[in-house]
Amino acid sequence: MTAIVITGGTDGMGRALARTYLDRGDTATAAHVAALKRYGAPVAEGIKPIIARVDAPPAEPLSAFLPDARISLDNPSFAPGDAARLDDLTRHLLRPREN
Asked: Which InterPro entries match (predicted)?
């Protein structure tokens, strides 16, 4: 079984992909779809916390938030080595490609 993350899994193509993987028994996708149904919000609602942070940014150069609460950067999810790896991979994927 493969772990697959599908963004936009509640509508359109994302929903169709999620349904395909769910139908084949991918439990990770099933959990993701269930979470989207439970915690998902329309874009007009979901964007409000982001707008609030843009309008009144925190003083710190780096901060993290859930929609309604600040997340501690001491959390292992924010390990500097993992962040550097993600940065390297992202830059690799976004590099100009030769024809």
From this structure: NAD(P)-bd_dom_sf
